Structure prediction request, 256 residues.
Amino acid sequence: MLYTFIICIIAGIGAGLGTGFAGMSAAAVISPMLITFLDMPAYEAVGIALASDVLASAVSAYTYGKNKNLDIKNGLVMMAAVLCFTMVGSWVSSIVPNQTMGNFSTFMTLLLGIKFIVRPVMTTKEAMQSVSPKKRVIQSLICGTLIGFICGFVGAGGGMMMLLILTSVLGYELKTAVGTSVFIMAFTAFTGAVSHFAIGGAPDWWVLICCVLSTFIWARVAARFANKASPKTLNRTTGIVLTVLGAAIVAVNYLT
Prediction:
């Protein structure tokens, strides 16, 4: 029991920091930890990770919104497409082998972390507003479809894909991109978790509670720090957090 508790707390710390700083899905950290160290079936591990995403993303979104770093209007457009295809992806993932799941976001987390260190996002909010609303809506719908499927299929919450698209394709500045990402993730993660539990059955409640609480606490801490940091500091911190977590996930997946 103590061993299980320690694994869940460590997984929650990594997931919470990733969510609060960079809008990263808790599943990118929690899933491989539970699968590797607790021998948990991949489908159940993904469901627990998505459930951990819900409160962590919600508290992060609240913090970013409170600091006016959240684009609700355009976020809702992307979320509509994401929600629909999350359920499709969740169903598809239930009929594929375990090893296919939970691994997609591993290298994306590492590479995106390096990207923020080498090429930080310095877009301003003024530059964001220059983008055509019609163009942004179309991009949001197309990107939301892809992100939703990925969320349901690999339990990644779409966090890394969403952050990459919001900053690189839609031209968001980093804080608003993270705030909008976690806002959408709170809903997509809830949909994905419900779908997983409905298809795969009830999870291990002890593991679920430990992971949810640990992720929630550390996401709150990270989000508060991120909203007070300068763009340069936030880019560097986000890059370091993602790089370290990405390297750790690779080690967990392939060296244990």
